[in-house]
Give the backbone structure.
Amino acid sequence: MAAPTTIFALSTAPGHSGVAVIRISGPCAGDVLDRMSPPRPDHRYAALRRIRDPHSGDLLDEALVLWFAAPRTETGEDMAELHLHGSPAVVKAVLSALGSLEGCRLAEPGEFARRAFENGKLDLAQIEGLADLIDAETDAQRSQALAQMRGALSNLYEGWRRDILEASALMEAAIDFSDEDDVATDAADRALAIVRTLGGEIAAHLDDGHRGEILRDGFRVVLAGPPNAGKSSLLNALARREAAIVSEEAGTTRDAIEVRLDLEGLPVIVTDTAGIRTASGEVEKEGIRRALAHAREADLILWLSDATAPVATPPPEDISRGDKFLIPVATKIDIPGAALSAGHVAISAKTGAGLPQLVAAITAAARDRIGASTTPAITRERYRQQLTQCMSAVHAFMQGNMMEQELRAEDLRQAASALGRITGRIDVEDVLGEIFGRFCIGK
Ligand SMILES: Nc1nc2c(ncn2[C@@H]2O[C@H](COP(=O)(O)OP(=O)(O)OP(=O)(O)O)[C@@H](O)[C@H]2O)c(=O)[nH]1
Ligand SMILES: [Mg+2]
């Protein structure tokens, strides 16, 4: 294999900032420092240096420079960091100087993480945890992502894979000793016992109510109800800004409008939708179709009714999935004569009355679904698919005929491969591009 090229990129957000960090990884990282900011600091030390253009000798910046010698680095390669003054002009000048050096080029999105994976520094599940940590917006997301990056899921899945490999070894022994009945039966029984326990653990892990995925993606709350119920007014009150247009005209909202809230560390996405009624216009009809679709996919529906309306409109049958998924809300209780009905959270978007109670009810529903469990949860559909495949191989093994030892050994191989694909131990070429491509440049 040819020596890898040396890659570099701005690793902090572009724009004006106090500091901008450029990272360099690859065999020339040390030479780059020797040429642009000599002398090179000691391994893992920082030093103040003048950064110069390697060809003209022009002074580009004065900066803190760090040197990390392979293999104890983030990517496993030689690495350097330049902590420049955070101005677009400084960054541009230094990037262009780096690009002029032979063997150096700008990194592609996710390329630092990819090298860390290829050099065995992080496995795929850990890298996906790292991506989630960079994207985390709330405290609970941060803590889930950090645990995953530090190996919480990888350790769980690798532990299970080791159990399967142990069962596989027992099945191989059963095959080798198939003419000695007791030895073969004994080995197969022990394999079966291991797989049974494991099957129970994986089934419990899969049956998690999608809490890890909801935490990662956000708990989805949909504001629904008849036109003019006050949905957009409530959205604005929750967001504390004029996110949606409010008017006394019925049928104002057409497109679904989303705001993201952080409720006690839990990520909550609130969506305002078109008022549901029998509409005649095509645009409004499409708005209502979308409103119903959002409501069906919601983790929680707030069904709003105007407390001053003569008759309350009940939610349509096809969006109600039981009490757990719907909170009835009576709106506009500041208006004299508003009638309060039992079981409703009563609010006024105008005065703010009842909003703390409503927010508390949303937070409680989100906490109930996401939970505060100490065991790591499945955070991606990719893991769920592999775990499901693993489970079907485990079932095939448990239900299959133990006399057909080769077939049972094959079941176990498939179960182990499914788990290995999550951490990237095997067969992962097809998912790599997709996973790393979603990172920004410099990660
Ligand atoms: N007094 C009072 N008026 C309110 C309150 N909430 C909403 N309104 C009024 O009710 C009317 C409709 O409010 P919107 O928030 O636009 O209602 P909506 O449910 O989004 O309506 P559509 O988008 O048409 O479905 C507006 O004139 C609001 O000012 C409230 O708490 N108190
Ligand atoms: Mg509206």
